[in-house]
Inverse folding.
């Protein structure tokens, strides 16, 4: 069976950039995400006019002391055009705050000199968000979002992610690190295969993905879950024809449809409507993107196929 890392390398190789438009094929690395698994990360990517927008929403599943840091590993040539910084979870003394940095070294726990988040790999850097003062951390059951905008020189793909839990109870090591993968700036697009792109001004949204961050300490998540990306359900939007029925309250009217007005025998029953108000709106359950239909109102009831 092929390894997850091999699958992710193939995923990254599917990226194509042409005239600022990014296309990404997500490999189906389906996994069951534990309901209580440290941290779950939902990623959202959108690109328009040569700019890539990334949002990571981190759900703290069971870390009672709270999320105190998030790091996304990206190529050093990734150019950050803008970023967001979350507010502190609470701020009773008005000293708590979050910061964002681009880091080429490890985040060191000042209490014992050990890494809270390891150093990035060669050729990579961290996009690092960190909470300052204990009220800034996000406790179990909460969610917080982080986002950046980048230029199109580096496109989206699978990247490493790390998070840190604030753990003063483990003094002198005050931070517990968690690791996994998510979607982020990953591929230098000049190295991608050429392909047919869409209009530079078009908006391309890539599939939203979910992943799990795990640690070596006891948790309900497994190391395999940290290497799996699961597509999130996508909303489905369809237009439907609206038919206004006007008449006498309490009477039954029928809606018929026909796809060809020249076919006088082509009328078919769609619905019977008993008016509860002088005017009611009914919808054809068939999406409006299907072949055109014409409608008429006749006395009802009539047979409905």
């Amino acid at each position: 069976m092929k390894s997850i890392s091999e699958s992710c390398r193939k995923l990254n190789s599917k990226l194509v950039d042409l005239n600022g438009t990014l296309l990404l094929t997500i490999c189906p690395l389906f996994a069951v995400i534990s309901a209580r698994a440290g941290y779950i990360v939902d990623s959202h990517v959108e690109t328009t006019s040569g700019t890539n927008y990334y949002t990571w929403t981190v759900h703290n599943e069971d870390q009672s002391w709270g999320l105190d840091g998030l790091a996304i590993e990206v190529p050093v040539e990734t150019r950050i055009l803008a970023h967001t910084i979350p507010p502190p979870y609470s701020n009773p003394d008005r000293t708590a705050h979050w910061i964002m940095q681009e880091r080429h070294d490890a985040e060191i726990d000042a209490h014992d000199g050990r890494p809270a988040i390891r150093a990035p790999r060669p050729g990579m850097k961290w996009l690092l968000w960190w909470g300052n003062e204990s009220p800034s951390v996000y406790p179990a059951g909460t969610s917080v979002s982080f986002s950046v905008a980048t230029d199109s020189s580096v496109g989206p793909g699978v990247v490493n992610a790390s998070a840190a839990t604030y753990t003063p109870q483990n003094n002198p090591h005050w931070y517990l690190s968690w690791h996994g993968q998510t979607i982020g700036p990953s591929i230098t697009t000049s190295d991608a295969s050429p392909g047919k792109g869409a209009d530079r001004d078009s908006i391309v949204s890539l599939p939203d993905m979910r992943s799990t961050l795990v640690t070596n300490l006891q948790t309900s998540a497994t190391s395999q879950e940290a290497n799996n990306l699961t597509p999130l359900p996508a909303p489905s939007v369809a237009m439907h024809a609206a038919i206004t029925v006007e008449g006498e309250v309490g009477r039954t009217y029928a809606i018929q449809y026909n796809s060809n007005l020249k076919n006088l025998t082509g009328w078919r029953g769609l619905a019977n409507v008993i008016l509860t108000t002088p005017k009611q709106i009914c919808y054809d359950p068939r999406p409006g993107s299907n072949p055109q239909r014409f409608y008429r109102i006749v006395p009802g009831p009539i047979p409905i196929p």
Q: What stands out?
A: Residues 71 and 128 are 4 Å apart (CA to CA). The two ends are 50 Å apart (CA to CA).
